[in-house]
């Protein structure tokens, strides 16, 4: 069975939520995020998770305006997502038994705020354990993360509630059914 962290809908959704800053030739440019952290690619925090100077086109210590290739940004994204999935595997093992869209919600939230903050959503985790999806979504909505998320929380809480992928338009995505032998 494929892992949600490799699912194209998850990666597209996460990239859309995180956004990126690019130069005119499409390379990813380092910038200060709203929290004041040096960031590159799709939300990689260079202050908390520095990378080698040789990732950057100028080979220098990263600073605002430093650039990396799209391939390097993809590698960082996959590495960061894998670290979040390991935290969920370690600290909230039931997450893998949930429907993929719901797994994606937890992985997206963990990527966005980190495990130390996500683990504070105790009411949401308790509701998930009971498979009370309406309550889990309500717990998400009753948070500073939801109020500050610029629409991210609205789509993800709906995705948690419905157990279906939510697209950029805020509506459920039609996903073709995969059958054995197809």
Quick recap:
Helix content is 46%, strand content 6%.
Q: Roughly how many Å is the radius of gyration? A: 17 Å
Integer average pLDDT: 93
Q: Within the largest sheet, what's the order of strands?
A: 2-3-4
**Cα separation of the termini:** 15 Å
| Secondary-structure element series | HEEEEEHHHHHHH
Report low-confidence residues grouped into runs of 5 or more.
Answer: 178-182
Strand composition percent:
5-15%
Question: Which structural category do the helix and sheet elements fall into?
Answer: mainly alpha
* Number of DSSP strand runs: 5
Helix share, percent: 40-55%
Care to describe what's here?
With 182 residues, this protein is mostly helical. The protein has eight helices and five strands, in the order H-E-E-E-E-E-H-H-H-H-H-H-H. It has helices at 8-18, 70-91, 100-113, 115-118, 122-129, 133-141, 144-148, 152-162, and strands at residues 28-29, 31-32, 38-40, 44-45, 67-68. Strands 2-3-4 form a three-stranded antiparallel β-sheet. Strands 1-5 form a two-stranded antiparallel ribbon. Strand 2 and strand 3 form a beta hairpin. Helix 2 (70-91) packs across helix 3 (100-113), helix 3 (100-113) runs antiparallel to helix 8 and helix 6 runs antiparallel to helix 8. The protein is elongated and about 50 Å long. The protein starts with 7 loop residues before the first helix and ends in a 20-residue tail after the last helix. Residues 178-182 have low confidence and may be disordered.
């Amino acid at each position: 069975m494929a892992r949600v962290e490799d699912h194209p809908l998850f990666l597209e959704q996460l990239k859309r939520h995180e956004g990126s800053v690019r130069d005119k030739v499409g390379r990813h440019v380092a910038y200060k995020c709203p929290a004041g952290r040096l960031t590159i690619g799709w939300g990689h925090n260079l202050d908390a998770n520095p990378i080698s100077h040789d990732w950057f086109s100028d080979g220098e210590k990263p600073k605002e305006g430093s650039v990396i290739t799209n391939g390097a940004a993809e590698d960082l994204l996959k590495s960061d997502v894998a670290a979040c999935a390991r935290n969920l595997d370690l600290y909230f093992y039931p997450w893998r038994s949930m429907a993929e869209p719901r797994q994606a919600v937890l992985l997206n939230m963990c990527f966005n705020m980190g495990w130390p903050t996500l683990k504070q959503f105790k009411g949401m985790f308790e509701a998930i354990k009971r498979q009370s999806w309406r309550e889990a979504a309500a717990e998400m909505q009753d948070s500073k993360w939801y109020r500050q998320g610029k629409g991210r929380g609205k789509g993800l809480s709906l995705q948690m509630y419905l157990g279906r992928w939510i697209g950029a338009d805020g509506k459920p995505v039609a996903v073709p059914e995969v059958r054995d032998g197809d």
